[in-house]
What we know:
The protein is mostly helical and 273 residues long. It is 53% helix and 4% strand. The chain folds into two domains: 2-55, no CATH class; 78-241, no CATH class. The protein has a two-stranded antiparallel ribbon with strand order 1-2. The chain has a two-stranded antiparallel ribbon with strand order 3-4. Helix 5 (105-125) crosses helix 9 (189-201), helix 5 (105-125) packs antiparallel against helix 10 (230-244) and helix 6 (135-142) packs across helix 7.
Amino acid sequence: EALSLLKNSGFVVIPTPLDIAEREVFLMSSRQNAYPKDDFVAYYKAIGEKDLPIFITTDSLLHYYHIFFDTTLMKLERDLFYKDVWAVSKNLLEESLKEYHETGGDLKEAAKRNIAYLSVALELLKPKINQIMSDETLREEYCSPEMDPEVCKMFIEGVKQSYGNKASFKYFSETEFNQYSFEVPDLAKDLVQKEIELIEEHKGWEYSPLFIYQEDYSQYVPRGHYTKSEKLKNYFKALIWYGRMTALIEGSPLLSPGESICTGDVGGIVSEY
């Protein structure tokens, strides 16, 4: 039937050869099948290496553009934007701490809440203990369950010698863990802890302890390429925080007309007039 279609149409599409579909390879990004269904690049590369004819459809070019953009963005976020967001957040936090200690009254209270706002982002960005690269996480990335333990050990040692702190795509290195360390200032710990708990639980709509108005905390679940590494997961949560939480002039039924957070008893960055 395939030969008949080839003769009549000039091309034929056949199922993936099993020796390609089921063969496992070891890549820097992870241990994976040589021909995974969800990996567009590996899909064509595996066939090309077999010297098999490749059927290219017009929509594949559009899909390739989408993947190229997505991969480029992912690398920029992981290698550049993460540290930029960290640096900007730390600088703004230092300015807010300075304002807090040098002012009084409403300005002091406003500075305190700026400190809490920035501290939430930094707390989301920073590496956690369970996000650090180790021999165990490297085995998870590079060794199949069936691999001989000694072969796995030798393979991991080779990866560590070749790539050092960059041996893992998925996890933070110990150097990064120390570089991006952060402690929430005591004056904002309570507010920050409440926000972090809501973000990590990501159940849905809840009143923000800091901003007073309701926020959809289910939006803080990493998705897309942001699930591919711990750094990208943290980056995603911090950027969602910065992108969604805004200092609304009006937006909370918890405040009376003419009352602001600096003059009322309710804590949060919202005023209603």
